[in-house]
Write a structure and sequence with these properties.
- The complex is a heterodimer of chains A (about 180) and B (about 200).
- With about 180 residues, chain A is an all-alpha fold.
- Chain A folds into 2 domains: about 100 residues, no CATH class; about 70 residues, no CATH class.
- Helix content of chain A is about 65%, strand content about 0%.
- Chain A is globular and about 55 Å long.
- Chain B folds into 2 domains: about 120 residues, no CATH class; about 70 residues, no CATH class.
- Helices cover about 70% and strands about 5% of the residues of chain B.
- Chain B is built from 9 helices and 2 strands; from the N terminus they run H-H-H-H-E-H-H-H-E-H-H.
- The chains are: A mainly alpha (about 180), B mainly alpha (about 200).
- Chains A and B meet through helix 1, helix 2, helix 5, helix 6 and helix 7 of A and helix 1, helix 2, helix 3, helix 4 and strand 1 of B.
Chain lengths: ~180, ~200
């Protein structure tokens, strides 16, 4: 066995695998996949708990910034824990699944993946900015590539298809200006 | 024949079964994303610059596979489609949100799911993106009062493309498969033209 990373799978093979996982989710649980929802829950939970800790424990939990915020309150107001949610457990599985696949194919390595003609610093800066911008878009659209494009696309949801086309339009629209980062 | 799926809506399942299923489904999700190369921003960036069309191929293959399974079993009477969650349409927030998300995608060269996969396979730029995403989610919440009205606008409820076009769902399923196959052919033509490996 060599130490070289294995090549990625053929795209159609990986796509069928991903599609069957999505189908299993529809058939078993009655809903599809998602990634940004769990991230939003975790961020909200962190704000909620950190605020409560700073301002004095459990009694303070009723008046945290998260409770007072019109958007975050929906996650922390109910009796259930904000993290006790299908999407959060799904994300937990995703992290393990991605890790296992990467390790099995010897692709786990600490590195910065970037274009050939840019610097690590620029790449990291743009990754952070991209994350911030994408979070804004995903929250406004109520989902990301997983929850809207993939899941909504397969159920033929009108708004999800509108979202998907808009993502490609936005991506191609801005990519030209960032071409020096990648080619 | 009576519908037997979605199983969770027809049988009474305990919360622990759902947690276990969520973790298992998530495992498959992360596993195949990583296999497809989506933990690596260079692969994702290829979509915008025409040197690697894995994003389009994996995504449309996955959509077509799940869609054919779901609607096929629906027509066979095995799935009650009414019990499957379909994202509600808020047309303009989804279009504008999609555009902004597309900007973020091409700036950061990840989307949330792929960034998580990149992060657990050691990619530091993916970790940076995840950090930015958490910050962005909080920023959105802080600024929410400013966009709250727009966020709730053009609410259309549960609308399928087939409802919107007034055609049977099977027609749209067939059309999506045709478009997907057409797009695949186009990417292979482009690969040849652009001299991609």
């Amino acid at each position: 066995m060599s130490d070289k990373p294995a090549p990625y799978w053929n795209s159609y093979k990986a796509g069928v695998g991903l599609g069957l996982v999505l189908l299993a989710s529809f058939l078993l649980v009655g809903r599809g996949l998602g990634a940004s929802g769990a991230a939003t829950r975790i961020a909200t939970y962190a704000v909620h708990k950190a605020d409560a800790a700073v301002h004095g424990g459990t009694e303070a939990e009723a008046t945290t910034a998260a409770m007072k915020n019109a958007y975050m309150a929906q996650y922390v107001k109910g009796p259930e824990d904000a993290l006790d949610d299908f999407l959060v457990y799904l994300l937990l599985g995703l992290l393990v699944g991605g890790f296992v696949s990467g390790v099995l194919d010897r692709r786990f390595s600490f590195e910065i993946t970037r274009g050939p003609n840019t610097t690590n610093r620029r790449r990291l800066l743009l990754a952070v900015v991209g994350g911030v911008v994408a979070a804004f878009g995903a929250r406004l659209a109520r989902g990301c590539t997983s929850g809207q494009a993939l899941t909504g696309g397969a159920t033929l949801a009108l708004g999800s298809w509108a979202f998907m086309l808009a993502v490609f339009a936005g991506g191609y629209g801005i990519a030209y200006f960032l071409r020096k980062e990648w080619i | 024949m009576n519908a037997i799926a979605p199983v969770a809506k027809i049988m009474e399942w305990g919360p622990s079964t759902e947690v276990l299923l969520a973790v298992l489904i998530g495992f498959g999700f992360g596993f195949f994303l990583e296999k497809g190369g989506f933990g690596n921003s260079r692969v994702l960036a290829g979509q915008w610059y025409g040197y690697n069309f894995a994003v389009l191929r994996v995504m449309f293959t996955a959509i077509a596979t799940a869609m054919l399974g779901l609607f096929g079993l629906h027509y066979a009477g095995l799935v009650n489609l009414e019990l499957v969650h379909v994202n509600e349409t808020f047309l303009w927030p989804q279009i504008v949100g999609g555009l902004i998300f597309g900007f973020g995608f091409a700036i950061g060269q990840f989307c949330p799911g792929t960034a998580f996969v990149g992060a657990v396979t050691g990619k530091i730029d993916a970790m940076a993106y995840v950090g930015g995403f958490f910050a962005g989610a909080i920023l959105f919440a802080v600024g929410f009062p400013l966009v709250a009205r727009f966020y709730e606008s053009s609410s259309m409820g549960r609308v399928l493309l087939s409802d919107w076009l007034h055609v049977p769902a099977g027609v749209v399923v067939f059309a999506v498969v045709l478009v997907a196959v057409g797009a695949f052919v186009l990417t292979h033509v482009l690969d040849k033209k652009l001299g991609n490996a």
